[in-house]
Amino acid sequence: MQRETASAMPPETMTGEAMSAREAAIARSAEAIRRHRGHNILIEAGDEPVVDRLARDDRPAPAVPPELWAWTFVAKDMIDVAGLPTTRGSILYGSQKALASAPCVEALERAGALLVGKANQHEFAWGITSENPHWGDVRNPRHEHLTPGGSSGGTAAALAAGIARFGLGTDTGGSVRIPAACCGVVGLRPRGGAVPAEGVAPLAPMFDRVGPMAKSVADCARVWRALSGEAVETPDSLTGLVVGVAEGCAQAEEFADLGAQVREIALPHDILPAYWTILGAQARRTHEGTYPREAASYSEGVRRKLDGAAGIGHREYRLAVETVAAVRARFSAEMSGVDLLVTPTLGAPAPRVGCDEAAVRGEVGRITAIVSALGLPALAVGDLQMVGRGEADVLRAGLCREARGGGIPEPR
Length: 412
Prior knowledge:
By secondary structure, the protein is an alpha/beta fold. The protein contains 14 helices and ten strands. The chain is globular, with a radius of gyration of 21 Å.
């Protein structure tokens, strides 16, 4: 119906309304950036703020605006955007501007979305607090006593602050989902290969993923369609689904009310030692060109992680890869007949401002890390995580819950 109405309007009217919507979206972002200037949400390492440059872009609107027209977004600063530096949250990078945008950014811009900034993050995307000694600690706009989570804390904070309608993050062990829980937004970790990794700086390639973040499941699903081409509709109920509940998920009863059959299931915690071994070894390889040669330019926290991974040898690494494959196969058999798995997003209370990141990282991120190790897609709706076999599975469940009034669970 909306398409028919729009196509009946004179092109000049549609173009005028589209330009007005674009200008209003840019103005809202600019005001939110000004209001939250002290929260260190964006990394503005270029010649001028991105949103200021965008405001001067007077290219005409298309006659029929695309799907994400005038939707503002931020990209975590692991992701290349043509003409802007990519710092990786470090002082080692960012001296040169990217020559081309990552395909994920190009897809969003083709859909009409407007990049308004590069989001701050935990250094090198390796941490859960987004406290950054180089670009300033990202502050949580919704919960001042909590960090925004990490490593995509700047992306989540930008949404919570109203700087952008949606954003792109990266997730290796929970770096989209943990910030979603801490800042009260939504984040999707896709399967490997679902979003191209080209133009995205790596941490541990076996587990690295690019995923959308938004303020609602509906918005996240729409961004997912622009990224992947996959449209996901909202089901009327979850009748016929079997939902496995793990880790004492507080929202279990909601899924029963939506029509699902609910049963308890245990997560395979024994996958974690192998997961951490692979992550450490791959991160050490990722940084071999600059570490330890440039160790003085690294934060103490990342130095400790890299030093801790220094002794991982070929045999230990190979055994870890074999263990992950074996646990994946075992858990897949245990999940036979289960359509969806629901858990809390956070394995422990959200990290507090000023906490010792090394001391809390393992417990806070243990549930998201297990899901990363299993290679399954997951949707975090605040402190609720839905895990399935495909992105559409988790998005449908999230859309159904949201349509029936399910809110975003607050962090503990």
